[in-house]
Amino acid sequence: MPPALFRVEEASQFLQDAVQLLGQDPTSQLGRKRLIEGSRGILQGTLAVLVAFDLSEVRKIVEYCKSVLAMLGQVEHIRSFSELAEFVKNLTPCMARMIKEVDERQQELVIQSHAELLERGIAQVKRITPILISSIKLFLNTTQQGLPAAHEAQLNRDYFLRQMSDEIQEIIRGLQLTSADDIDWQCGEHAGLRSAKNLIGRLAKYATAWLADPMVIKAVTFFTFDMPFRFIESVLNKKGKIFKD
Question: Which family does this protein fall into (predicted)?
Answer without folding.
Answer: Belongs to the vinculin/alpha-catenin family.
